[in-house]
Q: What sequence folds into this?
């Protein structure tokens, strides 16, 4: 399975320009891939004060264009996250799009970043689970979710083979991105595709270094700190092989009683 990570440069307050640029890169990647993934809120960037005007709906022209690209190139899309308005609220949401151009799952970012008061702009996602994307059992997470290991463990226990994490992760915390992305893949015996952006927000540069990590903590493909499309091949059979030889998931204790309790 060939995966493309679109590590694009995102400009502040340039929704129209980011959207056009992102779609061009996505289409280029889709021509030669089975799955394409983009970063977090790549169309608007982190200019959250403009979301009321710039959020889209699931039947918007942008979503229809994404579905059309998937259908045209027979390529699955996890097109990063987008500010999506649904039921009167705005979510930081990944719409999972099949090769047939159908939305098969919607994931709203569960853990909102308190340091930047994301809860002022987004509603937290309340539902998460694995989903089938053209025969692959996937899980979706977004940026800050990477700091919550129990979230990834739950997806792995539900059968996830590939977990994706679109992000806008800064350079000053790049070591955390390196460590946490590899840990989440290794401890859960899954492939993890973490797709970061480049550029900057208010002078704070983004880290880039998008990567695909295999279930044994090996980096299959990784980007640098500039705009590029990173391609990598994964063999999903490796998930089964790793779990057959050393399966920490089968040793999870779901109920542990504190010493002295019940005596």
A:
């Amino acid at each position: 399975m060939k995966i493309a990570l679109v590590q694009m440069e995102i400009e502040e307050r340039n929704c129209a320009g980011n959207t056009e640029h992102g779609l061009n890169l996505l289409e280029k990647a889709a021509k030669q891939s089975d799955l394409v993934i983009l970063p977090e809120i790549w169309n608007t960037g982190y200019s959250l004060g403009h979301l009321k005007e710039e959020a889209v709906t699931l039947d918007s022209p942008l979503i229809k264009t994404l579905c059309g690209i998937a259908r045209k190139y027979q390529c699955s899309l996890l097109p990063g996250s987008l500010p999506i308005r649904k039921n009167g609220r705005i979510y930081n949401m990944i719409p999972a799009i099949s090769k047939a151009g159908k939305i098969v799952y919607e994931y709203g970012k569960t853990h909102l970043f308190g340091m930047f008061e994301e809860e002022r702009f987004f509603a937290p996602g309340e539902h998460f689970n694995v989903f089938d994307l053209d025969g692959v059992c996937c899980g979706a997470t977004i940026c800050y979710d990477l700091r919550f290991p129990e979230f990834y463990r739950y997806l792995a226990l539900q059968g996830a083979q590939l977990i994706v994490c679109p992000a806008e992760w800064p350079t000053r915390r790049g070591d955390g991105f390196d460590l946490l992305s590899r840990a989440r893949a290794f401890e859960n015996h899954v492939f993890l595709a973490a797709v970061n952006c480049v550029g900057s927000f208010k002078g704070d540069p983004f880290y880039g270094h998008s990567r695909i990590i295999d279930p044994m903590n090996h980096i299959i493909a990784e980007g640098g700190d500039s705009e590029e499309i990173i391609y990598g091949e994964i063999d999903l059979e490796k998930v089964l092989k790793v779990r057959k030889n050393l399966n920490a998931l089968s040793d999870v204790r779901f109920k542990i009683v504190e010493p002295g309790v019940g005596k």
